[in-house]
Amino acid sequence: MCRIGHLYSVAQVSKLETGGHEGVxxxxxxxxxxxxxxxxxxxxxxxxxxxxxxxxxxxxxxxxEKLPRHVRILAPRAEIELMEVSWNAFxxxxxxxxxxxxxxxxExxxxxxxxxxxxxxxxxxxxxxExxxxxxxxxxxxx
Length: 143
Fold this sequence. Notes:
3 helices, transmembrane
């Protein structure tokens, strides 16, 4: 009974956090059984017990809209994703989470370069105007 309740609660939380293009995308959800050839890449052991069957899930959590606003402003085209691979052999669960941040790096670099160039040009113009304004103008006429 606890196994079913655990799976149900995980599914409900995933469903509540999903909306639009954000939330949890379940890519793969299937039973695994090490005695029938479907097994995790490593043995599932805990407290001297080996677990041979359960539920395998592969999820992608899309988190871009969950980021603070200032982060979204700095990297507007960022796709922040968590990849979750889980072997649920209740009560033992092994979950591996990897974080992938895909940012359109070229756009960010171009924006930074443009801002730096604009700042340099403004500083040069201000310095030149200041020098010209403080230097007396002398006219030399050669006859």
